[in-house]
Design a protein that fits this description.
Jelly Rolls, six-stranded antiparallel β-sheet
Amino acid sequence: MQSLLTRKVFNIRAIIAGIVFSGGVFADVAASQPDSYALPVHYSGRVLVEKKNQLTSYTYSWPGVYFEAEFTGSELDVRLNDANNILSLIIDDKEPVVLTRPGKITHSLKNLGKGPHKVRLEKRTETPMATGTFEGFYVPAKAALLQPEPRQRKIEFIGDSFSVGYANLSVSRQCKYDEIFSTTNTHQAFGALTAKHFNADYQINAISGSGVVRNYNGAFPDENFRRFYQYTFVGNKTIKYANVWSPNIIVLELGGNDFATPLNPGEKWKNREELQQDFVKSYTSFILGLRKQHPQASLVLLVPHAPSDEMLQQHNKVVEQLKSNAQTRVHLLKLEPMELTACQWHPSAKDHQSVSQQLVDFISSKPELWSGN
């Protein structure tokens, strides 16, 4: 079985070349229109919230974004303006209604029963080159408006295609782009599964093909994950993320692309040792920046299984550097081998379930992670 690190063959140019607020808070209720009223919306993920003509919209590009509301009554309108993503619309935890690149529409649901009901809208796909907009949940009667109960726990996942859930629903390693797109569901990746287990809100801030200092196979040497992380949209470097998000736990899964392939002629590192040193220095600096933003968060570094121990060794050095900077609430979790039967040797749905269980067991064994102790 070949490693995720040695067989990551995907079109990074399609992901990175065009890479052109959030979470766990309640947005204001949009102004009512004749015979319809906007539900209070709870959302998580990096979202730009805008108000125009007394109506609220939510625009997104990072993976794993979701919106929730509660209401009573038998009817619901879902207003969308998204021609780029596949969305899951879930009522009362039942099987989702899958909306594929719906465009600008109002999706109406009837005969739901008098309620109460819960509704959830999930962005399934990875679209770093494009945005989508959610324009609200609407009901016909103001008396139907309910306020969702806030979650007490929050967890953030930072990573690459593994964290995205790249083609995790595929059943073949040989896939074309459309198959990769349609079989990616971030909300069935290990991060979302883990957060849902703990009833925690989550952000999944990940970019396929990206690395700490080196993208897959050395592509786009002037760009890397660290350069994009600070922005509200993956590739729009004009809008910095307004950081109102405060996770209890941050899980980092980066480095696979940095070390996945041999160095190419012309790359800035003369040898593997220089790459390793740059990775350790840059990853340590990035994590210290996270600590400054989130002083109470516990940090967990994931290391996927690989034939070589190169990445594990560099992660151990990062942990040592962090501890030398008085960062004691840093943990490392080495993952068990995976089947890697999804597109282009990526983790399958079964793999994501296994990784989630490993992470659930790890967090459950250390309840202090939630309290920042």
